[in-house]
């Protein structure tokens, strides 16, 4: 059995298509198909359900896939540990991040790369469900996500910050001169918010509901960048996490107003799988997270913007 055969199987299970899996592995489709047939012959079990097209894995194939993920993760962990013994970490840290935490990611990845110049970071913007799957299947080394996610199991958690929600509103808007605003007040102004399928939007809707209000935004976006694109111009207001200020700041002609009310923002943090082998790169990222003070950096940034608007 060759590691390359296991890599082909993992790619096929991920892509669910022979041609796409072959392209992802930079080989021809016949080469990939032949390698998986050899794996079936060596293990003496059917792995792929074949018809005119890929139809999934057999029950035996699912077992082989789970072992393939584990074996390839062991190989990666071996390379990482050996590189550390040679004097410096190498390899690629695979980091999954929920979209609303992406603006704060550089607070971790930049110092990580400064401390480990031989390592690289691959960022993926993923949903909470995709992060859970990626950690379980050894496709991710670590993730930045909401720590109160019920789907997260068998992981180690490290809190980074608690989302603090603020209102971004035009300087000539009805709430611009307020020292604070309630959620019910915000519901009455023209709003641009993330779409309901985003976890952050569902959390914000719960905050509105806790204050007896319902938001009815005229503009909805499935990305933070798309939301910010609508804010210049003086028409729309938005509720944002203070972490977004790190990347996007405050658009010209707008002011930051703190939100008060009965609800509190959720915790965002790093998670790594408890399963073996442990990623040396993930452990190095956790060490950086313990030392850089993401929460303090974001709180100081928010204080700066609030002071600038007073």
Topology:
Layout: H1 3-15, H2 18-24, H3 29-43, E1 48-50, E2 54-57, H4 59-85, E3 91-97, H5 106-115, E4 119-125, H6 128-136, E5 142-146, E6 155-162, E7 165-170, E8 181-182, H7 183-186, E9 192-194, H8 199-210, E10 219-221, H9 224-229, E11 238-241, H10 245-248, E12 254-260, E13 267-273, H11 280-292, H12 294-308
Parallel strand pairs: 3-4, 3-5, 8-12, 9-10
Antiparallel strand pairs: 1-2, 5-13, 6-13, 7-11, 7-12
Helix pairs in contact: 1-2, 1-3, 1-4, 2-3, 5-11
Task: Give a verbal description of the structure.
This protein is α/β, with parallel strands linked by helices and 310 residues long. 44% of the residues lie in helices and 21% in strands. It is built from twelve helices and 13 strands. The chain has helices at 3-15, 18-24, 29-43, 59-85, 106-115, 128-136, 183-186, 199-210, 224-229, 245-248, 280-292, 294-308, and strands at residues 48-50, 54-57, 91-97, 119-125, 142-146, 155-162, 165-170, 181-182, 192-194, 219-221, 238-241, 254-260, 267-273. Helix 1 packs across helix 2, helix 2 crosses helix 3 (29-43) and helix 5 crosses helix 11. The longest helix is centred in the first third of the chain and has 27 residues, at 59-85. It is elongated and about 75 Å long.
């Amino acid at each position: 059995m060759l590691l390359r055969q296991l890599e082909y199987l993992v790619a096929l299970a991920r892509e669910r298509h022979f041609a796409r899996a072959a392209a992802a592995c930079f080989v021809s489709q016949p080469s990939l198909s032949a390698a998986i047939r050899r794996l079936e012959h060596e293990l003496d079990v059917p792995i792929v359900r074949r018809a005119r097209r890929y139809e999934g894995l057999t029950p035996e194939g699912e077992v082989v896939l789970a072992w393939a993920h584990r074996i390839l993760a062991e190989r990666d962990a071996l390379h990482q540990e050996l590189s550390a013994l040679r004097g410096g970490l190498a390899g690629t840290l695979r980091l999954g991040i929920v979209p609303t935490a992406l603006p704060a990611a550089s607070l971790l990845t930049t110092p990580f790369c400064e401390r480990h110049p031989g390592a690289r970071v691959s960022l993926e913007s993923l949903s909470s469900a995709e992060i859970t799957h990626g950690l379980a299947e050894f496709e991710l080394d670590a993730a930045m996500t909401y720590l109160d996610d019920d789907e997260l199991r068998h992981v180690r958690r490290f809190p980074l910050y608690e989302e603090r929600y603020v209102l971004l509103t035009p300087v000539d808007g009805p709430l611009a001169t307020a020292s604070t605003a309630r959620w019910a007040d915000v519901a009455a102004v023209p709003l641009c918010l993330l779409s309901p399928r985003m976890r952050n939007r569902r959390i914000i809707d719960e905050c509105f509901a806790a204050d007896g209000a319902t938001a009815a935004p005229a503009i909805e976006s499935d990305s933070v960048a798309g939301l910010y694109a609508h804010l210049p111009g003086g028409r729309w207001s938005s509720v944002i996490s203070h972490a977004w200020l790190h990347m996007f700041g405050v658009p010209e002609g707008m002011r930051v107003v703190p939100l008060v009310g009965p609800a509190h923002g959720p915790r965002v943090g790093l998670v790594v799988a408890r399963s073996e082998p442990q990623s040396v790169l993930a452990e190095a990222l956790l060490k950086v997270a313990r030392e850089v003070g993401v929460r303090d950096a974001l709180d100081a940034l928010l204080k700066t913007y609030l002071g600038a608007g007073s």
